């Protein structure tokens, strides 16, 4: 249904949400298949960058960011985005360690 909305009515939010849920559940092959059937998902940069920003806020999510960037390589400049989000994760971990030590 989400793919129908995307293809017929240019309404990409439900399809983007479904794509990101597939990534969350580690169903990478299904996500690739969906991306192949609805290539306009790769153009939804605001939604994808928002997803990466949310993932960067919690530790242990670098793999999901890497997976998204591997599926959609043109999303952002890889070096800059990965460095930015990796730095965010590092700051978060350092802050958590400091609080744990107190």
TrEMBL record:
Annotated GO CC locations: mitochondrion; nucleus
Matches recorded under PANTHER family: LEUCINE-RICH PPR MOTIF-CONTAINING PROTEIN, MITOCHONDRIAL (PTHR46669:SF1)
Domain of life per record: Eukaryota
Name this protein carries in UniProt: Leucine-rich PPR motif-containing protein, mitochondrial
Gene Ontology biological process terms from the UniProt entry: regulation of mitochondrial translation
InterPro entries in the record: LRP130
Molecular function terms from GO: mRNA 3'-UTR binding
């Amino acid at each position: 249904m989400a793919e129908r909305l995307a293809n017929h009515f240019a309404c990409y939010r439900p399809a983007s949400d479904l794509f990101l849920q597939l990534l969350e559940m580690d169903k990478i092959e299904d996500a690739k298949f969906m991306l192949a059937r609805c290539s306009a998902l790769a153009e939804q940069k605001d939604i994808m960058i928002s997803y990466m920003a949310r993932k960067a806020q919690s530790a242990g999510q670098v793999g999901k960011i890497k997976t998204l960037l591997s599926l959609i390589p043109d999303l952002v400049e890889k070096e800059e985005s990965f460095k930015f989000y990796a730095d965010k994760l590092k700051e978060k971990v350092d802050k958590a360690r400091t609080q744990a030590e107190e």
